[in-house]
Amino acid sequence: MVDLDGVYILHTRKPRFLAKVRENGRFEIVDMIDSFNEHYKGNADRIEKLMKRLAEWHRAYKIYEYEKTRNRRIYPKN
Predict the structure, then answer these.
(1) Residue 51 within a domain
(2) In this structure, is residue 22 part of a structural domain?
């Protein structure tokens, strides 16, 4: 795969998949290793919740990376 500007997330827990991050923060599944329908037994709500958790994780990761590059304290000193 050659996509130097692309951001990809490899989800290594079942259901395993490779997702490409789009500019609008949404994800495109580019490779499914495990079937969502088999893993969640066709429950669309659980699949949607997984995608929401992935989006929340990605947002938190982007905030962390931004703060890290700005040399700001991310967590309050105890």
Answers:
(1) yes
(2) yes
Asked whether the beta carbons of 30 and 19 are under 8 A apart, the reply is yes
Name the residue range of residue 25's domain: 7-69
Q: Classify residue 77: in a domain, yes or no.
A: no
Q: Residue 70, CB half-sphere, CA atoms under 13 Å: how many?
A: 9
Length of the chain: 78
Per-residue pLDDT tens over the stretch 30-76: 999 999 999 999 999 999 999 899 989 988 988 888 888 876 665 55
Q: What is the DSSP letter of 32?
A: E
Output the pTM of the full model.
0.73
Instruction: Give me the number of domains the chain comprises.
Output: 1
Q: Is 19 exposed, middle or buried (0-12, 13-18, 19+ CB in 10 A)?
A: buried
The Cβ of residue 17 has, within 10 Å, a number of other Cβ atoms equal to 20
